[in-house]
């Protein structure tokens, strides 16, 4: 089937099998490997992206269901002026260890702060409750999201002073 999906503001057309999952379309067809694929059972949340402005597990969405819709992935988080405050929060508060869960966590965090600029620890834990992290114990993820919320305004144009690896 021929589909056109707008990903991070750019329209992508492709001929895909009806059974193709969005996560595989993003990773394999578009090369956007920031979205991770961690399970086959809709449990881990490593694959979270935005579909029309809302976080979804992209392993539960067929690529054809995204036809004509807008997708935002972790590659679309940083702006022209630098990293998103959420990315800076994870960097500064050590919100990751292996980093496998991080793209999905950050996409949920960005959505949460957009919808609740001052989320409590409980709000944050609830927002990420559908996502698993096997490394951090979640404590530093919560701190990272709080940091982002608290520094939303001033972090926007800040350039990080450490090397950031893809
Ligand atoms: S890959 Fe695990 S929930 Fe999507
Ligand atoms: S940092 Fe390793 S799974 Fe979360």
Strand order of the largest sheet: 2-1-5-3-4
The helix-and-strand class reads: alpha+beta
Identify the overall geometry.
Answer: globular
| CATH structural architecture of the largest domain | Roll
Number of strands: 5
* Uncertain spans: none
Counting structural domains, the number is: 2
CATH homologous superfamily designation of the largest domain: Beta-grasp domain
CATH class of the largest domain: Alpha Beta
CA gyration radius, whole angstroms: 16 Å
Helix content: 25-40%
GO molecular function, one term: 2 iron, 2 sulfur cluster binding
InterPro entries: 2Fe-2S-bd, 2Fe-2S-bd_dom_sf, 2Fe-2S_ferredoxin-like_sf, 2Fe-2S_ferredoxin-type, Beta-grasp_dom_sf, Diverse_Oxidoreductases
Organism: Prauserella marina
Pathway: Alkaloid degradation; nicotine degradation
Task: Considering the chains and any ligands shown, give keywords for the structure.
single chain; 166 residues; alpha+beta; Ubiquitin-like (UB roll); DNA polymerase, domain 1; 2 domains; 5-stranded mixed sheet; 5 strands; 32% helix; 14% strand; binds FE2/S2 (inorganic) cluster
């Amino acid at each position: 089937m021929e589909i056109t999906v707008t990903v991070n503001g750019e329209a992508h057309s492709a001929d895909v099998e009806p059974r193709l999952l969005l996560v595989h379309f993003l990773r394999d067809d578009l090369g956007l490997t920031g979205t991770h694929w961690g399970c086959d059972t809709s449990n881990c949340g490593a694959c979270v992206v935005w579909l029309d402005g809302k976080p979804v597990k992209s392993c539960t969405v067929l690529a054809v269901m995204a036809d004509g819709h807008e997708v935002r992935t972790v590659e679309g988080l940083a702006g022209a002026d630098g990293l998103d405050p959420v990315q800076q929060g994870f960097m500064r508060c050590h919100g990751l260890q292996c980093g496998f869960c991080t793209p999905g966590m950050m996409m949920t965090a960005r959505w949460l702060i957009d919808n609740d600029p001052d989320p409590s620890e409980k709000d944050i834990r609830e927002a990420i409750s559908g996502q698993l992290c096997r490394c951090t114990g979640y404590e530093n993820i919560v701190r990272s999201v709080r940091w982002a919320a608290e520094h939303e305004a001033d972090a926007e144009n800040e350039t990080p002073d450490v090397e950031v690896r893809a």
